[in-house]
């Protein structure tokens, strides 16, 4: 039977057809093949193999966050029977918890379109939270006070990786698949799109606005950093000195200087904001790579060493580099990071349950929490976190949820 027929019969209407057609056309009759074919419409079987495993009831819950199969209960029963037998509960990726003085509160929102890979939420001063659905080609808006959400379908082929807000709280998206940067005009609800001036600049990734309104952004696989002037649409691009450095996260220091982390090499990049000249800082360890970074008010550059499972700090004044081991070890793969309230916050994305960690800057000690999910289904992962009006604004791409994290001392 054709895959599309199975998908339509199964109710997998929430998934983009471009993704669905990437799987083979036929399905074998046995349950194992059914699981592999349907689940790999969006991700590889490695996601399941490396999971902490679930009971049948929890597999049902997890699937419900990804696709709507409510009209086909027999298929759900068939799938979850196989999943719970093949991938039962295990502790092979168990995370380590470090106790401390703080307690957390989580507020969750489920985005409307399932299967979209909701990610990178950011909150404006008006309280509105914006996110992008990378696989669903969506820009989303959430009013956290009422829970009301609205989704905008982006121009065809955009597949946004992130969203940032300018000084007017206009949401800007980065077209990760079509080499574009653009924004949503809030009055007309129409999109303005800027194309990259170089055909080699294919994948705008993460961006940030400086106080002059200039938009700085990374292009990971293109190995570039970009600068866009929204007043005239002028875009300038520079290539990193080390091939395949894969520039990823980007933040500004107190002087408006952009700093970039390298996901493919052991480096940080300091960008001259006038000339766009690049200063490469080599980090210790050939296996070091840093997905994202955070900068404190005194301009210390903190980064997650995703390759070696460490938190790092670079002092631009003394050139000193210091690293601390993550609680869950070298294979914990820290991913997102943010400065907030006298501490560095980051996550251990490779562990289950995934952890959120607070590194106290005064004492240089860590406290960690296993992230809760609805109905006890522990999933991941947080790919970006930013400070909002009350707390950290995060997401979990596996369950297509957004969340606000607040804290207080016990």
The main sheet orders its strands as 1-28-27-26
How far apart the termini lie comes to 58 Å
CATH homologous superfamily heading of the largest domain? YVTN repeat-like/Quinoprotein amine dehydrogenase
Secondary structure tally, helices: 6
How much of the polypeptide forms β-strand, as a percent range? 35-45%
CATH names the topology of the largest domain as Methylamine Dehydrogenase, Chain H
- The percent of residues in helical segments reads 10-25%
Largest sheet data? 4 strands, antiparallel
* E-strand count: 28
Shape: globular
Structural class: mainly beta
What is the class of the largest domain in the CATH system? Mainly Beta
Structure description:
- The protein has two domains: 3-86, no CATH class; 102-409, Methylamine Dehydrogenase, Chain H (7 Propeller).
- 12% of the residues lie in helices and 39% in strands.
- The protein has six helices and 28 strands.
- The strands form seven sheets. It has a four-stranded antiparallel β-sheet, with no helix packed on it. A four-stranded antiparallel β-sheet has the order 2-3-4-5, with no helix packed on it. A four-stranded antiparallel β-sheet has the order 6-7-8-9, with no helix packed on it.
- It is globular and about 60 Å long.
- The N and C termini lie far apart (58 Å).
- 46% of the residues are buried.
- Mean pLDDT is 90; it is low at 1-29.
- It comes from Thalassotalea agarivorans (Thalassomonas agarivorans).
- Residues 1-28 form the signal peptide.
